[in-house]
Amino acid sequence: MQSVLRNCYKNSWYVKRKPEPRKKRGCQEEAAFLTLLRVTDRLSRGLTRVLKTEDLSLTQYNVLRILRGAPEGLSCGDIGRRMITRDPDITRLLDRLERRRLISRCRESCDRRTVLTRITGEGLDVLARLDGPVHHAHRKQLGQLGKQRLDQLTEILCGVEG
To answer: In whole angstroms, what is the distance from residue 5 CA to residue 101 CA?
Structure first.
């Protein structure tokens, strides 16, 4: 019985394991990439909390912002090309926003194949309510960098985006 207990103890999580040898550190590009991912995740979580007050996801908010800047309306493909993050199912995303009456869709009169999407008054109201809190969240997250460093950061990231 004691040998069984001893074997159980040896194989349990109580046993201190030898530290694994340190893996060879990756290249600087990998370190920068991983840092970008971590920072993006942290910043996104902060904005997600703000958007939750209006029951919006980051992608839904992105669509509303895009449409606010295009009052004449945009096709589904044009919206997809302007998205910050790619959503493979833009149509379903637009369906959800339309059900909430934040956007409207209609066929174009000169080309019936094209469906234009526009932001509604309700969608504009939601964005208006979010403008202040979103601006405040961005200031809280990045304001400590100051204008000069923010300009440098933006310039560096635009260089990566190519």
So the answer is: 65
CA distance 22 to 19: 8
Share of residues in the chain with pLDDT > 90 (%): 63
Q: pLDDT digits over 128-150, tens only?
A: 999 999 999 999 999 999 999 99
92: Cβ contacts below 8 Å, ≥ 6 apart: none
Q: Cα–Cα distance between 47 and 39 in angstroms, integer?
A: 13
State CA 56 to chain mean position distance: 12
Radius of gyration of the chain, Cα coordinates, nearest whole angstrom: 24
pLDDT of residue 137: 95
The amino acid that residue 80 corresponds to is: G
Domain ranges of the chain: 54-162
DSSP H or E segment with residue 65: helix 58-68
CATH number of the domain at 54-162, out of 3.20.20.70, 3.10.580.10, 1.10.510.10, 1.10.10.10? Answer: 1.10.10.10
pLDDT at 5: 47
Question: Exposed (0-12), middle (13-18) or buried (19+): which is 76, by Cβ within 10 Å?
Answer: middle
Instruction: Give mean pLDDT, residues 63-70.
Output: 96
